[in-house]
Amino acid sequence: KAGVTQTPRYLIKTRGQQVTLSCSPISGHRSVSWYQQTPGQGLQFLFEYFSETQRNKGNFPGRFSGRQFSNSRSEMNVSTLELGDSALYLCASSLLSGGAETQYFGPGTRLLVL
Amino acid sequence: DQQVKQNSPSLSVQEGRISILNCDYTNSMFDYFLWYKKYPAEGPTFLISISSIKDKNEDGRFTVFLNKSAKHLSLHIVPSQPGDSAVYFCAAKGQGTYKYIFGTGTRLKVLA
């Protein structure tokens, strides 16, 4: 079974631009979560989607948004990019949501904002 | 407020010895815990999990211990191998919630 895939793997943008990242979960998984990883901060939770509905949101500004499609694929959008948005963005999928579910991560998209 | 803490940013261990990685949490409502390993330029890889109804879970060289009264979690790797060198994250989740809280990670270096 294929793992979680994320595209693109690397991205360079300039301040003020917007970016869209894509995540395809493991086949059959319905929950997709997004995380931001920066040095020294660990993984910071952005949001989680299940059956096309956002179930939870972390403490990030409204510039960060996402959505999930009927095939469980998810996209994350960041508008008006700032230098501090440079990070590794990770997507994780799990079969269900809310229970003792293990999340499986994709390789991440490394975003550099200049 | 960091609800999941990994107070040791790094750890070095000789090959063949035991590696012990620690994790403390503050929220008594957490009921499911996981450990992940992460290599540079890759996403975290799931290692082992434990539910709050257990105090130990073992999988090969990896054992996770949970001390609920101390709100403390530890991962033991025996014997340690050079390929275990990576950053290890612990994560926790509360019952019925959809959000995993991650620690900041511990970089393990296994010396040959």
Provide a brief overview of the structure:
Chain A is mainly β. Chain A has strands at residues 5-7, 10-13, 19-24, 31-38, 42-50, 53-57, 64-68, 74-78, 87-94, 104-105, 109-113. In chain A, strands 2, 4, 5, 6, 9, 10 and 11 form a seven-stranded mixed sheet that branches. In chain A, strands 1-3-8-7 form a four-stranded antiparallel sheet, with no helix packed on it.
Q: Please, could you describe this protein's structure?
A:
Helix content of chain A is 0%, strand content 53%. By secondary structure, chain A is mostly beta strands. In chain A, strands 2, 4, 5, 6, 9, 10 and 11 form a seven-stranded mixed β-sheet that branches. In chain A, a hairpin with a 5-residue loop joins strand 7 (64-68) and strand 8 (74-78). Chain B is mainly beta and 112 residues long. Chain B contains no helices and eleven strands. Chain B has strands at residues 4-5, 10-14, 19-25, 30-38, 45-51, 56-59, 62-67, 72-77, 86-94, 100-102, 106-111. The radius of gyration of chain B is 13 Å and the shape is globular. Chain A binds chain B through residues 4, 6, 31, 33, 35, 40-45, 48, 50, 55-56, 58, 90, 92, 97-98, 100, 102-108, 110, and chain B through 6, 31-32, 34, 36, 41-46, 49, 51, 89, 91, 93, 96-105.
Q: Determine the structural class of chain A based on helices, strands and strand pairing.
A: mainly beta
- Overall number of strands of chain A: 11
The N- and C-terminal alpha carbons of chain A lie at a distance of 37 Å
- Let me know the average pLDDT of chain A: 92
Structure classification of chain B = mainly beta
